[in-house]
Write the structure tokens for this entry.
Amino acid sequence: MIIRPPSEAKSLLLQVTVGCSHNKCSFCPTYKGENFRIKSFAEIEEDILEASRYRSVEKLFLCDGDVLILPQRRLVEILLSIQRQIKGVKRVGCYANAKSILRKTPEELVQLRELGLLIVYLGVETGNEGLLKIISKGASNAQLVEAGQRIKNAGIALSVTVLLGIGGIEKSVEHAFDTAKILTDIDPDYVGALTVMVVPGTPLYEDYVKGVFVLPDTFGFLRELEIMVAHSDFTNCFFTSNHASNYLPIRARMPEEKEKTIHMIQHVIQSGDNRRLRPEYLRGL
């Protein structure tokens, strides 16, 4: 199983780890049953050499779930090999979590940026402290904020994801306001708002079957989105909710298009017009 952000659709994918170093999030089915391991440099370099035979590549994405957990020496080796062997690479990206980011010193992150790591994707999911524990995120609100700011201070672009609906009906509004707050505190370059999908085999699904976790309805998801947009303040951010899981696709430059986006979401909610929404059969992970 290989996953990558939507914005890396045209990137060369280079697998350097297998699985996710955390692999405990209650909602995520991606690496269940997969033992995390770091591929040997010989394996990675073999793939780099194979990729070097293709046409030039502008963007390259390091897979899998948490590449920044690699020791600094190994990451430097990989990035130097990419520079030497693959023509035309202008940007390298990877996933990270708060733990792996905070294990890097500010100087180490600057070194990675100088070697081409120009964007990092961080799953925040929620700003609500209680929910972070419930979903087994493995990081506190403060740690997520510090990790995000450390990436930005190193001059690396930061893209964060948040999950509409992860608080269920019970904590829907609380989750939305707290997530707006953490987005403001981190002030990322990009935000992707996804809608939670309850997948069999996950702890979240077990709670869903038991009735412990109850999803908001379609317009409940949109109310969360409205709160997040309305109560977040960004310096310069591209905010999207155009993932396949979302009911209402949005692409907006913040803060310039904030008011227009809020009014559009409010109009859809007030009209109750399902025709503006993505049909259920087209939604996916």
